[in-house]
Amino acid sequence: YTLDNDLLTTEQRQFYEDNGYLLIKKLVSDEDIERFRKEFVRICKREVNPPGAMIMKDESLRSQFGQSEKVVNKVQDFQEDEELFRYCTLPEV
Prior knowledge:
Blueprint: H1 10-19, H2 30-44, E1 54-57, H3 62-65, E2 72-76, H4 82-89
Antiparallel strand pairs: 1-2
């Protein structure tokens, strides 16, 4: 549950409580998003292999996208990847 403060609107808090996530556009710079996207793709292609990271795929998309990163719906336990974990430490987040 969210705390009553001036960081989020009432509507944003309610959306988060109902859905479990909140999208805030332009919270993170385009440059950072591009760096995170590139690292995500590198992990999906197994160009880097952070210890303990698990790649979760939606196998129903394989016929449409093959082995591309578009079938990956989650990278779990990525904290050992310095670049992706940097997202968690951004002051904006």
